[in-house]
Amino acid sequence: MPDPAASTRFGIGTFRTTVDSPEFAGLVVGERVLDLSARFPGAAVRDLLDEWDSVLPVLVELADSTGAWQPLAALDVRAPVAPRQVLQAGANYRTHVIDLAVQHSDIGAERTVEQVRAEAAAMMDRRAAEGTPYFFLGLPTVIGGPYDDVVLPDYSRQHDWELELAAVIGRRAFRIDRDEALDHVAGYTIVNDLTTRDLVFRRDMPEIGTDWFRAKNAPGFLPTGPFLVPSRFVGDPGDLRVTLTLNGDTMQDESTKDMIFDVAALVAAASHTVPLLPGDLVLTGSPAGNGIHHGRLLRDGDVMEGTITGGDSLSLGTQRVRAVAP
What we know:
five-stranded antiparallel sheet, about 20% helix, about 30% strand
């Protein structure tokens, strides 16, 4: 593969010129978009990922080409890919899990915050050394656009944000080892894995545990994008910065170094149960700073802005989503 430093950095995404026009796959360089329909007729981004090994060199060439480039600002940006499967990793950031442990513990004279934090940290050390990632599934219908409004269902007032890094699969992976897992990742994108907090645990049957189906699968509860940035430009996915602001105030600001299981471990573990297919999303978990931690959950009119950045001015783009009442 060519040296990524010697090629123009780009992303790919899904666009339309108007709300009623058909969607098309586009190559993004800076503030310009090249419609890929001429080179790949009728192909959606998932079709490109189905043939990623042969498509990527073509995209590298097109990134430096002249052609019918369009201004990004003139286009409607959709979620970059329509996945067949969405695998969501839970409890995968140390600070986030420690905060949750404190929040759900009885703190008093006999059990201090410091003790709870130390117990949670020791538990995660054991889990990282001996355990496996914790996954649940999202439905493809949960995908939303990176600039869409998200409707807050009126059956709850406890909707929360969880900005995350998502790995996008570019080569079928089934029962692969960790050391080969990143070879199956085409690139990365941003997701906001929204959660309805009071539906996470079943009150009518506590013994059954968590109910992620109800807590996470409302329509549009996974704003995705704006772009898929190829792995070659991202470098180490374990050294990125995940930041979410709410109405301009920073709520999440954490490094992916805080992950308990890194991207390779997550992809490998998921592949040992199900075949991962091109276009599938493997979510890597939420860093600390959710609304439940801040005591401030989503309200009508709130605007969430999410970015994931890295060294050498790397950016996966900016996601901007407004929460609205039904």
